[in-house]
Amino acid sequence: MLRPWNTILKIEIKNKKAVFQQIADGITEEIKKGRLTPGTTLPGTRALAEDIGVNRKTVVLAYETLMAEGWLSTAYKKGTFVSEKLPEINSNLNKQKQNSQNSFKHNLFTNEKPQPVTPIKPTIVFDDGLPDLKLAPINELARAYRRVFQQKARWKMMGYGDEKGEERLRIALSEMLRLERGLSVDAANICVTRGSQMALYLVACTLIKPGDVVAVENPGYDPVWKAFIHAGASLQPVMVDEQGICATALEKLCKRKKLKAVYVTPHHQFPTTVNMKADRRIKLLELSCKYGFAIIEDDYDHDYHFCLRNVLPIASSDGASNVIYVSSLAKLIAPAVRIGYVAGPKNFIDSLAALRKIIDRQGDNVMELAVAELMEEGAIRKHARRAFFVYKERRDLMAAYLDMYLSKRASYEKPDGGLAYWVKFNKSINTTELAAKLLKKGIFIPTTERFSFDGKPLNALRLGYASLNENELENGIKILSGMI
């Protein structure tokens, strides 16, 4: 049986105090410090004797002394434990805990306010656009992972790799970007990261200096706002309408302030799902060249576009030298596969990779090689085609149930792509309060107040449909309609 406690007892043979007493006092002190908590299993007498280099009978005597004093207890054939009822220790421990508060200052980072604790577990979950994990190519990935470990030179993977990521994966990504998304890049223009949020954080820290002005979509993606703010940016919201970010408002902003960057989600805007129209894309590139700002293009779910013609990224356009392209494989494979990437000018990628090396030496080499193998043999593309038809069917089912149950209470457009709907209600609604009511009915919805830059209510919901079956979609929308 493994013992969770590493013994660090110091025994002095020449000490006037008997060795068994030194052992007993050392264990008592560890209990008082709180390192040995009630119920902790102690090493057997033989193991402890060998560990500290004394006779086993000495340890037996120490244990017997501590059991007599109430510090330890024993159970037949189970071992020796720290007693659940310690003698006069609670007050001492509390004093030590009070005195152990740190006195140094630190930066304060906080998460969103946690959801209220509830015993209710939702049976239907409308996420904000996640893939169905049951469709993920788990078996193919597991086989590729094993094959990587079966290679003759597998020992090479156990050392440090390239901070930009495994070259084999970057080559596979560059080929995919060139052939399927129209980007003119090679492996040197790509840095692999642990997900797109890390990619965006590295972009922000590499690009932005304190005081730089960054324009962001409103409504928009609040986690990246936080990354920009942490890098020292001053954020300027720009309105999003049914054609994407408002180019006229952005141009007015450029005339008033010196912009360092503009962050956009043009393919399926987050959270509204709209696709940025061609004239807006061209205007955005023109403004970038004229005013010298970078375009940070977050293409978070490019693979699921259901129209006849898939719109290519802005980064594929002529004159896209100022575009920094960010994407990931989370929607394509599964969120747990933390592989994101940044594509851009080589000098920028080199600098970003140097920063990445400071905070995270490299990614998961084995996982990157396994994913590269799946991309090379076409397994990822095969999975994407299979998932495409499943998600397209669920998107159409969602539209049918929205028409059936919410057409008189809300407005919505069937999205060209992505894995979520943007549903705008005809009346003012607090989605936080609505979420609490729905949870009591077993329905989870993501609140949307946080997507509003100025805090104004959006009176809308972003409802992911990809991970729900037909019955769940209908029941979820039906119950939601009864709450509006």
Walk me through this protein's architecture.
- It is a single chain.
- With 484 residues, this protein is α/β, with parallel strands linked by helices.
- It has three domains: 19-99, Arc Repressor Mutant, subunit A (Orthogonal Bundle); 124-135 and 382-481, Aspartate Aminotransferase, domain 1; 138-380, Type I PLP-dependent aspartate aminotransferase-like (Major domain) (Aspartate Aminotransferase, domain 2), CATH 3.40.640.
- Helix content is 40%, strand content 14%.
- It contains 15 helices and 15 strands.
- Strands 4-11-10-9-8-5-6-7 form an eight-stranded mixed β-sheet, sandwiched between helices. Strands 12-13-15 form a three-stranded antiparallel β-sheet, with no helix packed on it.
- Helix 10 (278-291) links the parallel strand 8 (259-264) and strand 9.
- Helix 5 (138-149) packs across helix 12 (365-376), helix 7 (196-207) packs across helix 11 (346-359) and helix 9 packs parallel to helix 10 (278-291).
- The longest helix is centred in the C-terminal third of the chain and has 27 residues, at 379-405.
